[in-house]
């Protein structure tokens, strides 16, 4: 059977049902990343990401935009996952790497570097030398959304990608969730994976910590305000606040392996 491919050579998925099938059949992260990159299941997001990539921001006019869904970043042996909202229109949608090339990325990668989880404190483009150790970064929605606001339907359509990504991290022990949108998106994913969820559902908050038991043992969720400019410019989220959450994540991940 011939598999349809987009102009970048990625296998194409066009429906929510196709997303579920394609994600479920990915046997490793490399395959999953390629399938995510060829997703066309949400017409509004496809139109927006491609329009942004065509028009471009003036300061990036000489650059070729990625203009596709943005896969995760980090090794398969990660014990920590960081889940954000969605790629930025002129960040990940431009560079093709999650959180790379925007102000939010400046914050999260600098914090990961301070925590000993990143090889350098900056992330400007693919090939800049950045490597992550012990952590995988992903987004709840893989396409840049208009006004940075995915719809619930788009969140749910994208959900199987996140579910499969977390399932392909066998050593995962901690998930750091950036913002309330990701917190909401994660619960159905964990329920479907067999984790026993508390009732009522714990509310999101900075520093929130929830322990879950599931088929692969204990998993701890940690909440952090998102690294959006709205939060960082106003001081709602400070570097010490973010560092404290990541320090707790590394402590828990190390404890789970006896380190």
Automatic annotation (TrEMBL):
Domain Uracil-DNA glycosylase-like stretches: 71-246
Keywords per UniProt: 4Fe-4S, DNA damage, DNA repair, Hydrolase, Iron, Iron-sulfur, Metal-binding
Claim: DNA repair is one of the keywords in the record: yes
Pfam families in alphabetical order: UDG
Keyword Zinc on entry: no
SMART domains: UDG, UreE_C
Family as reported in the entry's similarity comment: Belongs to the uracil-DNA glycosylase (UDG) superfamily. Type 5 (UDGb) family.
UniProt protein name: Type-5 uracil-DNA glycosylase
Provenance organism: Blastococcus deserti
Highest classification ranks of the organism: Bacteria, Bacillati, Actinomycetota, Actinomycetes, Geodermatophilales
């Amino acid at each position: 059977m011939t598999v349809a491919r987009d102009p970048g050579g990625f296998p194409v998925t066009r429906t929510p049902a196709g997303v579920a099938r394609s994600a479920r059949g990915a046997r490793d992260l490399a395959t999953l990343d390629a399938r995510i990159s060829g997703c066309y299941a949400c017409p509004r997001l496809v139109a927006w990401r491609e329009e942004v990539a065509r028009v471009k921001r003036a300061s990036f006019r000489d650059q070729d935009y990625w203009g596709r869904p943005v896969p995760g970043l980090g090794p398969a042996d990660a014990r920590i996952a960081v889940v954000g909202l969605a790629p930025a229109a002129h960040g990940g949608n431009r560079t093709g790497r999650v959180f790379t090339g925007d102000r939010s990325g400046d914050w999260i990668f600098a914090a990961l570097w301070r925590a000993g989880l990143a090889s350098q404190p900056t992330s400007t483009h693919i090939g800049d030398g950045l490597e992550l150790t012990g952590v995988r970064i992903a987004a709840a929605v893989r396409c840049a959304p208009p006004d940075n606001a995915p719809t619930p339907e788009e969140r749910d359509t994208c959900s199987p990608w996140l579910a499969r990504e977390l399932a392909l991290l066998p050593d995962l022990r901690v998930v750091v969730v950036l913002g309330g949108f990701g917190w909401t998106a994660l619960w159905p994913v964990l329920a479907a994976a067999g984790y026993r969820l508390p009732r009522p559902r714990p509310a999101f908050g900075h520093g929130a910590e929830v322990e879950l038991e599931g088929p692969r043992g204990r998993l701890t969720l940690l909440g952090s305000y998102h690294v959006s400019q709205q939060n960082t410019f106003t001081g709602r989220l400070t570097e010490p606040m973010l560092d404290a959450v990541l320090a707790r994540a590394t402590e828990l991940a190390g404890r789970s392996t006896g380190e």
